[in-house]
Structures are given as C-alpha cells and as structure tokens.
Specification:
This protein is of the alpha/beta class. The chain has one domain (26-193): Rossmann fold. It contains 8 helices and 7 strands, in the order αβαβαβαβαβαββαα. The strands form 2 sheets. A 5-stranded parallel β-sheet has the order 2-1-3-4-5, sandwiched between helices. A two-stranded antiparallel sheet has the order 6-7. Helix 3 runs parallel beside helix 4. The longest helix is centred in the first third of the chain and has 23 residues, at 3-25. It is globular. The N and C termini lie far apart (42 Å).
Length: 194
C-alpha cells in the first residue's frame, strides 16, 4: 500500500469517526454548573467546538438543582467549590431516588482539586467522571462518549446510588460499596508511583 493510499484511508476513517461523534454529541443537552462566569464560558466554548448545540448554565448548586428539574439534561458538568451549595452536596441531593425527580442524570465533576480524597468522595457520591481544570475539548469529549456510548447501569447498594463502579481488569466482581471505597484512579496512582 502506498503512503498516499494509507493517508487517504486514515482521512476516510477520521471523517467517519467525526461523523459518528457528531451524531452522538449534537442532540445532547448539557448543563454547566459553576459559580465562575469565565469558567462557564470556557466550558461552553469547548462544548460548542466539539459539536454540542444545547448548552445551559447555572451559577451555583441551588440554581443547578432547579435547572436539572426543568431541563432533564443528558449530562451535568459541575464544579466542586461553589458558594451556598457546592458540587458534592448537589450530587448528594440529586442521587436521592424518591426525593429528587431526576436521580440518574450523569455527572462530570470538573474541578481544580485533584486530591485523592476528593476523587474518592466523588466516586462514593455517584459521579460518573472526574476531570481536572484546566480541561481540553478532547478530555470533555472522551468523558461524554464514555457516558453516552458506554453507559454504566445505575445501581443502589446500601446508601450508594449511582453508576455501577468500574472494576479493575482481571479483578473479580465485588459489591459496589466495597469497590467505591478502594478505587484506584490511574492518573493519581501513576503520579504517586513516580
């Protein structure tokens, strides 16, 4: 195969993948909950750049709860630190089936905090994905595709309500409440090993 034919094949594949991704993200409704107006604008611009057309914003956790009730978004991107009602408190309220009307909405926690305890707490609360600021359009897209194209079923085990926790490859299945307590986050594990 010539180099030209190989390059043409890659362009066709990239075009197909781009079309597939566009079909996934174009119809989505996303909600950004962040008290920082500049950060909301940055995230909105990143989402629009990857093809999301329906983006809404809320200025804090209380406004975020109301927006989730009104919009039933496909994904909520929430900051950890906000006044009045922070991101973790907001997730805790939403993940209350029987109390909150839309408890299954997927969450991406987008925060400037990468401490291990915060990642574990987010997982324990039922956050689907965890991203650090500053964030790229590709990182957002990857997490959105993970949520939409490879959804994890929602489970309730004891006090835990949220996406079924991921298992480490080769590890036997365990009860979700055990998995959520012993999660190894690859980025953090690699950084602490260095």
């Amino acid at each position: 195969m010539s180099a030209h034919a190989g390059a043409a094949g890659w362009r066709v594949m990239a075009s197909f993948m781009s079309s597939s991704v566009e079909k996934l993200v174009h119809p989505l409704t996303l909600l950004i909950v962040d008290d920082n107006q500049y950060m909301r604008k940055v995230v909105r611009n990143l989402l629009v750049s990857i093809g999301v057309k329906n983006v809404h914003e809320a200025v804090d956790g209380i406004a975020g709860l109301e927006a989730i009730r009104m919009l039933s978004p496909d994904i909520v991107i929430v900051d950890w630190e906000m006044p009045l009602l922070n991101g973790s408190e907001m997730v805790r309220i939403v993940r209350s089936p029987g109390v909150f009307p839309v408890p299954d909405v997927p969450f991406i926690m987008l925060t400037g905090h990468g401490e291990r305890w915060r990642v574990r707490e987010a997982i324990r609360l039922g956050v689907n994905e965890y991203l650090m600021k500053p964030v790229s359009a590709q990182a957002l897209l990857d997490r959105m595709i993970s949520i939409i194209a490879k959804p994890r079923r929602v489970v309730q085990v004891g006090d835990y309500y949220g996406p079924e926790p991921r298992r480490v490859t080769g590890e036997p299945a365990r009860a979700p409440e055990i998995v959520t307590q012993d999660v190894v986050v690859p980025e953090i594990a690699a950084a602490s090993a260095a």
